[in-house]
Recover the amino acids of this structure.
């Protein structure tokens, strides 16, 4: 895999929010929603991003899709940095990176018909006649498994699963290559979830898509992803191939997450219950951000932030004891 | 939508009253029974008869003709002031709600400052500055309506711009004007229409008030407020003179208010 150029590279990507302090309205505080996130996504793969709510995984997706500007860091797409691109190249790259958002009903404009919504990306970015646009919309609706007649309906007339299909259709309209799937199935019920996941898999095969698959559902991520990154408090704590991580997690946070995974067979794995709350992003802990809830925390963890260490080829963990934490 | 409108009493009554108002207005544009400004000292204070449907006033002018002509004034002042208030308020509110931050602070404090004055006082000051007449009345009432539209626009923008479909459109490359015109505006149309209808009735009342005080519409141009003022002196001897313009103001304002309430009920729900 290393011979292939990554489609997307993030280098120290950060997104900070400034919020007013509760005590002093004139003081602004910084929230590091995404803090120096670095990762590479290769063409045709699915990179899963997991973590509990508030860990910055959605923010990272939004920055990638151009909804939010990054505070710092670099996004390289197709080997070229966004900051080095001309306006036209940037617009082209933006077209190829599309996002499907979490809530299928909130991400469709309630006053517009489905056909208009799916065709809007073409209306903005390309110059088609009305007939050509309608034809492309009809084809796309069929691709995502919707009836052509949906085009003349309003979003509230569709079910949740159908709406998510519409969102996928709109995102694919510009022949996008990288799809950021931001919790695409978490608002759907289980039977519909599997339909949408299989649709995404099918589209990936037929259209050579690359996915950044953001989710908090570990089963879903395992099913979908080739590689996986685990986020905690805005930082990546561990990443690697899915089998490596599910089989041999090295970061205590990943271990705790995986131990809570419900499964049909009793795997005889001890549940690791994390104590305490997620620390506030306003005042992140010193040293390793996870030390406040980590069983293995020692003085070293409280003082020195750990570095990313390579466990085996392509498997990295950000823990002082990553090499010792076997099994 | 049409079915629901039929069941909504507010909307129905309001629409009927406004239809009557519109018929009167259109007729007045075609012709009036008499020249509304023609005096006839021989026929002062005539009670309603077949010759003068609503009687005549202290100068012998036909009240029905004057009421009809007055509808034009009401309409001009109402529409112009709502248009001014809506345009300025929408732009300020859109900037305020979309950008937020310092621009929002400055605009909202300005609006607060304006709202600290009662509307009619502010309009009086403006008219004193630019001189009376129907155009300046419309202008002054338009300015007093700005904060109302500004606030409602700002609130809608702040709420809608955070929604997922705006984010989705952004990621698909939609420009800011496009976001506003195609995504935000259609979703805030109903509160805007309701506010505009209610602002219209406020403007009618304020115009009547200003004309009553002698600062709005200038004689001999007929205005319902002015007619009310003139009729005041003859209230005991010729009560119908005061009764007629009073009724017209009440019914028109009532019509707009009911229509506004009805529209709010009709457009408030998700089901179209």
């Amino acid at each position: 895999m290393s011979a292939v150029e990554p489609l997307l590279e993030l280098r120290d990507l950060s997104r900070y929010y400034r919020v007013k302090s509760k005590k002093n309205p004139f003081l602004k505080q910084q929230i590091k929603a995404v803090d120096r996130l670095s990762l590479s996504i290769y063409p045709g793969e699915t990179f899963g991003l997991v973590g509990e709510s508030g860990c910055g995984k959605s923010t990272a997706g939004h920055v990638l899709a151009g909804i939010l500007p990054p505070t710092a860091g670099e996004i390289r797409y197709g080997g070229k940095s966004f900051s080095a691109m001309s306006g036209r190249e940037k617009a082209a790259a933006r077209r190829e990176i599309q996002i499907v958002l979490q809530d299928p009903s909130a991400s469709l404009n309630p006053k517009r018909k489905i056909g208009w919504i799916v065709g809007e990306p073409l209306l903005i970015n390309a110059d088609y006649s009305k007939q050509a646009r309608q034809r492309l919309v009809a084809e796309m609706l069929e691709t995502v498994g919707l009836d052509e007649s949906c085009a003349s309906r309003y979003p509230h007339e569709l079910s949740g699963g159908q709406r998510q299909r519409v969102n996928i259709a709109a995102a694919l309209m510009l022949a996008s290559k990288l799809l950021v799937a931001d919790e695409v199935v978490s608002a759907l019920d289980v039977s519909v979830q599997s339909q949408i996941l299989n649709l995404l898999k099918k589209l990936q095969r037929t259209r050579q898509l690359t996915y950044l698959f953001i989710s908090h559902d570990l089963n879903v991520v395992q099913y979908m992803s080739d590689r996986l990154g685990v986020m905690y408090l805005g930082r990546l704590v561990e990443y690697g191939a899915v089998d490596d991580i599910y089989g041999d997690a090295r970061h205590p946070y990943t271990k705790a997450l995986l131990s809570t995974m419900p499964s049909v067979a009793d795997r005889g794995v001890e549940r690791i219950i994390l104590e305490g709350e997620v620390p506030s992003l306003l005042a992140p802990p010193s040293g390793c951000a996870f030390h406040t809830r980590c069983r293995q925390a020692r003085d070293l963890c409280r003082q020195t932030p750990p570095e990313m260490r390579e466990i085996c080829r392509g498997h990295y963990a950000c823990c002082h004891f990553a090499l010792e934490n076997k099994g | 939508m049409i079915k629901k409108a039929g069941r909504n009493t507010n909307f129905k009554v309001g629409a009927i009253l406004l239809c009557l108002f519109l018929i009167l207005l259109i007729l007045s544009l075609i012709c009036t029974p008499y020249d509304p400004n023609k005096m006839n000292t021989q026929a002062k204070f005539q009670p309603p008869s077949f010759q003068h449907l609503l009687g005549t006033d202290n100068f012998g002018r036909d009240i029905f003709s004057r009421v009809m002509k007055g509808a034009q004034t009401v309409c001009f002042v109402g529409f112009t002031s709502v248009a001014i208030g809506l345009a300025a308020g929408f732009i300020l509110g859109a900037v305020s709600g979309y950008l937020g931050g310092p621009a929002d602070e400055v605009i909202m404090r300005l609006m607060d400052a304006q709202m600290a004055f009662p509307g009619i006082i502010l309009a009086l000051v403006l008219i004193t500055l630019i001189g009376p007449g129907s155009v300046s009345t419309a202008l002054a009432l338009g300015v007093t309506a700005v904060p109302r539209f500004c606030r409602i626009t700002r609130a809608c923008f702040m709420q809608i711009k955070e929604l997922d479909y705006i984010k989705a459109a952004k990621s698909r490359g939609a420009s800011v004007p496009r976001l506003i015109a195609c995504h935000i505006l259609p979703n805030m149309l109903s509160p805007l229409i309701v506010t505009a209808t209610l602002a219209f009735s406020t403007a009618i009342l304020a115009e009547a008030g200003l004309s009553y005080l002698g600062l709005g519409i200038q004689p001999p141009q007929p205005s319902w407020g002015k007619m009310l003022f003139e009729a005041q002196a003859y209230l005991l001897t010729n009560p119908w003179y005061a009764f007629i313009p009073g009724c017209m103001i009440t019914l028109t304002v009532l019509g707009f208010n009911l229509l506004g309430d009805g529209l709010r009920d009709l457009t408030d729900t998700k089901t179209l």
